[in-house]
Automatic annotation (TrEMBL):
<dbReference type="GO" id="GO:0016491">
    <property type="term" value="F:oxidoreductase activity"/>
</dbReference>
<dbReference type="InterPro" id="IPR036291">
    <property type="entry name" value="NAD(P)-bd_dom_sf"/>
</dbReference>
<feature type="domain" description="Ketoreductase">
    <location>
        <begin position="7"/>
        <end position="187"/>
    </location>
</feature>
<dbReference type="InterPro" id="IPR002347">
    <property type="entry name" value="SDR_fam"/>
</dbReference>
<dbReference type="Pfam" id="PF13561">
    <property type="entry name" value="adh_short_C2"/>
</dbReference>
<comment type="similarity">
    <text>Belongs to the short-chain dehydrogenases/reductases (SDR) family.</text>
</comment>
<keyword id="KW-0560">Oxidoreductase</keyword>
<protein>
    <submittedName>
        <fullName>Short chain dehydrogenase</fullName>
    </submittedName>
</protein>
<dbReference type="InterPro" id="IPR057326">
    <property type="entry name" value="KR_dom"/>
</dbReference>
Amino acid sequence: MNRFKGKVVLVTGGATGIGEAAALAFAREGASVVIAGRRVNEGEKAVDRLKATGAEGYFVQTDVTREAEVERLLETINSRYGRLDVAFNNAGHEGKQAVVSELDETAWDAVVTVNLKGAWLCMKHEIQQMRKQGGGAIVNMATNLAYVGRPGTGAYSAAKAGVLALSRIAALENIQAGIRINAVSPGPVGTPMAERLFGSLENQRKRLETASPLGRAGKPEEIAAAVLWLSSSESAYVVGQDIVLDGGINIQ
């Protein structure tokens, strides 16, 4: 399939995990993919993997919590490609796990700034570009923890719930301009973040054998498939929605 042939796609946090899986999936379907992230070495290696498939890829070092850097990112995309058709705002940080009564202000600020402020800043400037060109699609990364409670994840869950609220409002504000905005909310997925949270992917696997109705973690490629669908014309009637991909955890 070539659903994104001739399209320009931005993936923030696209060097590893779900972001990288999405970047590779977009590239396989014909897109020119821009990866944005803070770590230059990882970002450039991810672009090399894109190019190895024959795709067009480009890395822009960006801290999504700094508006000047997000502005520069969009200016770079516009200068290089002249447009932005799809944005997957995936950059995020799970932060320190602590119960609400023991969560310190620095840890709270770090998580909320990356996950919520970062998503807002990216959307702000992506929308401005897409309005100029007459449309586009945006998918924001949330989490199933915005729906279900897990002690110790207060800052992360609150920030991602904020992303969902922001996504719905921005969707309403921009659909008449031809910009569709939606979100995905994964549960446990086999990524570097999962290794940090569970100690290892093997620990994650053992935990989910009984904790998840499906009995396993998700694969980055499974989340990427949903992101691509939401970004494509196949989901043209989907506006301001969230797809939960967690193997049934949130319906228990």
